[in-house]
Design brief:
This protein is of the alpha+beta class. The chain has 4 domains: 343 residues, ATPase, nucleotide binding domain (Nucleotidyltransferase, domain 5, 2-Layer Sandwich), CATH 3.30.420.40; 112 residues, Sandwich (Substrate Binding Domain Of DNAk, Chain A, domain 1), CATH 2.60.34; 128 residues, no CATH class; 75 residues, no CATH class. The protein is 35% helix and 22% strand. The protein contains 18 helices and 36 strands. The longest helix is centred in the last third of the chain and has 34 residues. Keywords: ATP-binding, Chaperone, Nucleotide-binding, Stress response.
Length: 836
Amino acid sequence: MPYRTLGIDLGTTNSVTVWMDGGVPVVLPNRHGEQATVSAVGTGADGSLLVGSEALGVRDRLPGSVITEVKRLIGRRHVDADVQRLLDERPADAPPVRESADGGVEIRLGAHWLTPVQISAILLRRLRTDAENTAGEPFPRAVITVPAYFTEPQYAAVREAGELAGFTVVRILPEPTAAAHAFGVERLVEDDDDMCSVLVYDLGGGTFDVSLLIIGSGYFQVYKLGGDKSLGGADFDSALCRMLTEKRLGDRDRSGTGDAARIRAAAERTKIELSDVTAAEIILAPLGKNGGSWTGQVTRDDFEELIGAEIDRTLELTHGVLRGASRKTEDIDKVLLIGGSTRIPMVRRRLAEMFGEEKVHSGIDPMSAVALGAGIEAGLASTLACPSEPCLTTGIPFTESACPDCGTSLLGMATVDCPGCHVPAAEGTTSCPVCAVSLSGLRATAPVASRAACPHCGCPENSTSATLCQDCDQPLDAGGLKCPRCQMVNATGLTACSACDALFQTDQPEQVTAQNLGLALDDGTVAVLFTAGTPYPTDWQNIENLQIRPAGTSALTFRIVEGPHEKSHARNEFCGEHTHVFDRSTGSVERLTLRVQLDENRTVNLAYRIGDGEELGARLRRSAVADGIGRAASRLLDEIRTHSAHFGGELTEAEHGRFAELTEQLTAIVRGEPFGQSLDGLLDEARDTVETCRDARGWTANASVAARRGRELGLAAPAEELADARRALDAARERLDLPAMRAATEHARSLWRQLDTTTWRSMLAAHDAELGRFPESVRRPILTAWDDLRAAASRGDYVAQDALHMKLNELAGHSQAPVPAARKRRDSAQVFPERR
């Protein structure tokens, strides 16, 4: 059967879904009959889920209950300066935001704190449900669009959100590429032999992209990219809001419930109206706690003055792309406008001045162009990659339902909505992994089935999932493109007509990287893996002349960065990382064999071998734990391994078990894996456990030595007290009673301190000599002196005892090897260039 793929424009402000129906892309209206779903997620007063316009409808009554513009935060770190700026500019009635345990962002939805990935998954789940009910058939796969200038962590976060919503994500497609698909199908290239240089100017709600494309019949290349992932129509709304509150409203009371939402909504409406009129009237009522009102006017000139600097910024970025491609404005054949903010007259006017009015092209609605292109990409795609993280299999035919190598389903998963936090979960999940609410008994709802008419015989009773007509056995629509010449509806994956060989006016694009992708090295530089403008997907390529210094560490971290700064990896943006945790002691320097590849979704895949070990495959984790937490976890992991290696035979069964649990948890943190509890709390608990167990074992040994040696010196009373302390320590350690272990340790320590310093030093010297911890030239004199000390104690010769204690202390002290100068400890192995 055909596995249909949904095209999704996941927008900052609005989202649109499209499928290929009869060989052409068709927008699927949502449950309210709207062509676009507002990208808003909220909760009602009763905690019920609200999505789209229904969420915006309660924003003024329930401040802090509606999340908008979450796309601007997805895949980003809370500490980033740009993220902090975006948070500072959020509306006053926006929900609270905090830093998550892994260094990302969390937003409160109702009673729960959710990540941008989880919130986006809620939105995608609603888009999927509405699309399936409108089309009457399931969509197990999706093509989801993102801004071309999104970073690698943002690409990965959108993919994660799609998978959480139940899709197998076929492609993460750059928005300008999607729009060019849509324009291409509209016969953008008039002559089959012509190549067209197309500049796509994409100014959306939250981001700006500019892309230079080369398009022809059967040819599609993305040549150069530029943009700003934090510049868009939302910034224009914020500017209008600030003008209204700071300059127009002045000292008027605006502290009433819902005032912030009403002012923001008025700014959004005014921005839209000023695209058609030169002046817009604004009425704000009620306003303030006493229910007053305010009326005013904003002109188009006022608005253009507010946004002039931002529009100039987009034009600077456009010039930068042209310079990077060695092109002039006259070399561009067409300028395509997409994104709702390109409807602003100032944008079109400035671009017409730059390129010529005849080149500025807007034949397709800029609000739907990206979604239409996503649907076309769904019809062109013929292969997909395995979604399983450990599996690196790519190029799997669309007809397959599971990965041929690892068996992972290629049809997504049936999902249910958690009634507590609303985050989707796989059908059959016992309890929600986010909020722990029971999901037992919940079942996924099948789409309302519809019937498709056969284009050959007209039979109206075919299921939309059927491949052949039940009457004439002719092939039915499976989601491919319609031939512009003979009108044949083709199978998915074809870029030329199977009936007449005509080339479609768009093709599978040859994408390129926006910026350098490189490996951070120990010396602070970057080993560039893929230069800006590298076409992808790529073949596997070897990275030569790398070594690692793993000595004294628990892990090796491959940190990938994105940006132009080759001399300082810290100046680039964190892209992702993979951490290899060592399970054995390693030498001081080992050779690192590394291979890298970019797949069709711009995902960096790694294959590496340390020394003569086996080759391991890895995909990057973009949501790494905060650096400080990762370092702390690595140090604790080293301490546990060192302690277990030195004293494993002395540990209790309970201590071995707890150390095994902590090793598993700390290894997961070091690797950057998601964790379901506070990382700070876990590290505090682990640190307390390690220190308590380490102290308890040490004082168990000290008490045992002192009890035995004390009896040999005739110190019966303190020896018996120390023996009792040792027994108390043993009992507490057997049951891993940490408070009891700490109390027993402190008691043993206090008894030890009651001994004379020279006495306990003599005891330890004799103990270490018996265990062979001294050179033979010292060991024998120490044992002889100890025997003499025992004899002196038995006859009560205190003068001889004092002399022998001094002799033992001196022998032990002189025999100790000098302590080397401390070296700076590394928390993970370092990758560095091989020296030649």
